[in-house]
Amino acid sequence: MSNTFKVKVNNSHEFEISKKEIDSLDMVTNFEASTHLLQNNKSFQIKTLQQDFDKKTYTIKVNRNTYEVIIANELDQLINQMGFSLSASKHINVIKAPMPGLILSVDVEAGKEVKEGDTLLILEAMKMENSITSPLDGVIKSVIVAQGDAVDKNQLLIEFE
Asked: Which of 26, 1, 4 lies closest to 14, judged by CA?
């Protein structure tokens, strides 16, 4: 792999940059976790405001302007060329019990909007509490179980719209 990155800024501007080009930039990181870049005799102050390493998305501020940046390395590009994507693999309509147990609490209801990682319910199994979290952003279609229900492995718990 030649270490080339595809960069998309504000979902409109796309360009490629190599690791070698990045290494040759005249940059200094200061104590405030911001970076000073000197390019073509122009000075730029760069600060990362938000970052999501899983999705490889960043919100950065350059001088007074804010940008949404997506960076794809060569593996990401290859996966995309092969027709695969992370979002395609997360098309989930139902949550099933990973093991038999007892429902200790249900934290969602039909119609509720949830974000990836939100706790949907707590399942007690083998004297351990297991948080069942949302694998994606979505809307709850129906909740099949209630607090106090005993469930079997692979029993339907929650459906997404």
From this structure: 4
Closest CA to 60 of 34, 84, 81, 28: 34
> How many Cβ atoms sit within 10 Å of the Cβ of residue 157?
22
Range of the domain at 69: 4-88
Please state whether the predicted TM-score (pTM) of the whole model is above 0.85.
no
Q: Are residues 21 and 83 in the same domain?
A: yes
Q: Are residues 35 and 18 in the same domain?
A: yes
C-beta separation of 72 from 5 below 8 A: yes
d(CA 147, CA 153): 17
Domain boundary among 66, 88, 110: 88
How far apart are the C-alpha atoms of 32 and 16, rounded to whole Å?
28
pLDDT in tens, 57-109: 889 999 999 999 998 888 877 777 776 655 545 567 899 998 999 999 999 99
